DNA sequence: TCAAATGGC
């Protein structure tokens, strides 16, 4: 794929436009034909026709994501206004693949080929191939439980086993069953009720076809889950990667640096004259520094990129020839008994290890240096523990309840979460008012919370704020709480300047009022500048740069704000503002979050009231130094210590009436 | 007196 793209850049600019187009079309056609999957098109279509469920194992570079949907379209699976839906774990993937496929089909994006993600829907009534995030497809089921417009649904990258993928796999199993056995009864109803025609059209077609695509080592897990479904293997296209192991186990990161220098001295003699340009990449990195990672190394330099697991699946850095794999990954786990998340470095799985070394063979033959012995590799787990077994389940269970699945313990998960994790989530949802005493969805609160794309605690805060007079402020607050790292660490020479700026924003009350202030001030700046629609992003970036705010995070928060504002307006909420009456807003905050409070102890540490854990204020909080007597917080996570994040002090006067109720 | 994984609705 890369070589054709580069070839096009070298075209003579004087070539007539029409001819350049036809050359481009020819290149695309040649590229498509060269993909490993192209030779098995006929066979694949036959198998889809024969089997209602198909597992496709395709290695990197097989072309399965872009080609199979086109094969299905050409084979007539989109006749009669039906769609082929392709779910992806991330929106970047959904968008880039949809763009590529639209180009290959020579159609305008948003017509025959489109994508749909949380903030952007490019599909129209004539869309046949729809790429989307798996989380969004789940939400579609809330509106259309039979997913009636789809003739085929492809779940891509299923091996990643995100929570959304796992729930989707279970849901689709049920939808497929409902659509095959429910046909008859519903057709009778169709004659008597035109209003539900949308759902019924879906029932008159042949059963829903399901295709699960995975890059994992074996397809057994998926095949068994779908009652022995047929699995096919499609060849990949990768350059060879030499794997090198260490003779002795490596125990610290200093060894990583040594390895890099050894590579430079011994193994890369031809390149040894180049100096090393060290760069780091992680998700919170401000965009200008991100550009440096993607830019080619200056002459005389070799880039050494230190990456988090963002480089495993989310981002591909061009030009990689050597990968050093320390064999560990920072992984989040959730302890339901303490209501606390832990982040620590754990051994990778074999699947992750292969993913990492694979990056060395994208553009040519490469090498991968594994900082452990081969026998240690053999001992690794085949695949990473599915996320659903390591996370807070409250959101998942709320979604399932809203989809009509009441028996969570008996739910057909591909990997069942622990009983205690389910109990904890049910209890939390009950406490938040989303579930009734017998664990049914509370109407309307539970329904409303399920429809909001937020943590249930934040959805609850919006419902409370609607009963007060500060919904506008709470919308801003939960949008800001939903994104990571609004502030970032500036380079050394700017540190003093940044501190002044930070002090300007800091509220003595805590992080919530600080975030509200940041959002409001940036908004005032935008309004004062009166930018054209197209310039808003640029104006915002300028403001962020001057104020040491992470512009990507703030933009993300603005997008969430817009989205959830639309959601609550649809629910009939009236978005009113308390203006400068911060007391009302603070009361509402306390009412929303007082359940997660902590109290200062004699030694300056804090005791979390719910779990009894001894915790510390995270250094990024504006209250890190002032240490108020009592605080509430939104996050509790163990890293080097047990830290609480995003906190606001609780006024001692309020604790006298913590029975405070917004309905009073 | 100090943190910092990553996706998604």
TrEMBL record:
Helicase C-terminal domain ranges (all copies): 240-404
Record domain Helicase ATP-binding: where: 45-235
GO molecular function: ATP binding; double-stranded RNA binding; hydrolase activity; RNA helicase activity
Name of this chain's protein: RNA helicase
Gene Ontology BP, a term: positive regulation of transcription by RNA polymerase I
GO cellular component: nucleolus; spliceosomal complex
SMART domains: AAA, DEXDc, HA2, HELICc
InterPro entries (UniProt xref): AAA+_ATPase, DEAD-box_helicase_OB_fold, DNA/RNA_helicase_DEAH_CS, Helicase-assoc_dom, Helicase_ATP-bd, Helicase_C-like, P-loop_NTPase
Enzyme nomenclature, EC number: 3.6.4.13
């Amino acid at each position: 794929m890369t070589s054709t793209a580069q070839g096009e850049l070298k075209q003579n600019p004087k070539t007539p436009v029409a001819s350049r187009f036809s050359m481009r079309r020819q290149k695309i056609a040649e590229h498509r034909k060269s993909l490993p999957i192209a030779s098995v098109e006929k066979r694949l279509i036959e198998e889809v026709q024969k089997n209602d469920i198909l597992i496709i194992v395709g290695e990197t570079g097989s072309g399965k994501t872009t080609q199979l949907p086109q094969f299905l379209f050409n084979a007539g699976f989109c006749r009669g206004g039906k769609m082929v839906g392709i779910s992806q774990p991330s929106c970047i993937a959904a968008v880039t693949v949809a763009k590529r496929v639209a180009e290959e089909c020579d159609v305008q994006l948003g017509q025959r080929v489109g994508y749909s993600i949380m903030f952007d829907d490019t599909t129209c009534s004539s869309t046949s191939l729809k790429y989307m995030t798996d989380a969004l497809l789940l939400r579609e089921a809330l509106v259309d439980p039979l997913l009636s417009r789809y003739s085929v649904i492809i779940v891509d990258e299923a091996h990643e086993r995100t929570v959304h993928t796992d729930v989707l796999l279970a849901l689709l199993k049920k939808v497929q069953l409902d659509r095959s056995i429910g046909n008859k009864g519903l057709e009778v109803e169709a004659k008597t009720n035109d209003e539900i025609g949308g759902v019924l059209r879906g029932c008159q077609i042949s059963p829903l076809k399901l295709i699960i695509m995975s890059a994992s080592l074996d397809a057994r897990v998926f095949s068994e889950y779908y009652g022995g479904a047929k699995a096919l293997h499609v060849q990949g296209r990768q350059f060879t990667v030499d794997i090198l192991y260490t003779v002795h186990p490596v125990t610290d990161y200093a060894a990583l640096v040594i390895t890099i220098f050894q590579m430079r001295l011994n193994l890369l003699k031809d390149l040894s004259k180049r100096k090393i340009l060290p760069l780091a990449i992680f998700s919170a990195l401000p965009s200008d520094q991100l550009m440096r990672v993607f830019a080619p190394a200056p002459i005389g330099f070799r880039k050494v990129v230190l990456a988090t697991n963002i480089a495993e699946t989310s981002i591909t850095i061009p030009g990689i020839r050597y990968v050093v794999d320390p064999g560990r990954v920072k992984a989040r786990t959730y302890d339901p008994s303490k209501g606390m998340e832990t982040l620590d470095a754990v051994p990778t799985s074999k699947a992750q290890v292969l993913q990492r070394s694979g990056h060395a063979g994208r553009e040519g033959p490469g090498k991968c240096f594994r900082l452990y012995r081969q026998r240690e590799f053999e001992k690794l787990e085949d695949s990473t523990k599915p996320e659903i077994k390591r996370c807070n389940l409250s959101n998942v269970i709320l979604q399932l309840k809203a989809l009509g699945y009441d028996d969570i313990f008996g739910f057909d998960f591909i990997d069942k979460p622990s009983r205690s994790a389910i109990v904890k989530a049910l209890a939390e949802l009950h406490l938040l008012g989303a579930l009734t005493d017998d664990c049914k969805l509370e109407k309307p609160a539970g329904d409303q919370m399920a429809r909001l794309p937020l943590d249930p605690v934040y959805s609850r805060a919006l419902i409370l704020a609607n009963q007060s007079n500060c919904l506008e402020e709470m919308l801003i607050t939960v949008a800001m709480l939903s994104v990571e790292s609004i502030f970032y660490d500036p380079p050394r020479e700017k540190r003093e300047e940044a501190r002044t700026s930070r002090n300007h924003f800091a509220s003595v009350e805590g992080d919530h009022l600080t975030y509200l202030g940041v959002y409001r001030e940036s908004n005032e700046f935008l309004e004062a500048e009166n930018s054209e629609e197209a310039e808003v992003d640029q104006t915002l970036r300028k403001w962020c740069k001057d104020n040491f705010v992470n512009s990507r995070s703030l933009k993300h928060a603005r997008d969430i704000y817009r989205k959830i504002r639309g959601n609550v307006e649809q629910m009939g909420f009236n978005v009113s503002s308390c203006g400068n009456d911060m007391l009302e807003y603070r009361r509402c905050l306390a009412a929303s979050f007082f359940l997660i409070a902590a109290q200062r102890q004699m030694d300056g540490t804090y005791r979390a009231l719910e779990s009894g854990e001894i915790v510390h204020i995270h250094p990024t909080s504006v209250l890190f130094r002032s240490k108020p007597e009592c605080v509430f917080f939104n996050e509790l996570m163990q890293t080097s210590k047990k830290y609480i994040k995003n906190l606001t002090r609780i006024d001692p006067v309020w604790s006298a009436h913590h029975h405070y109720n917004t309905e009073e």
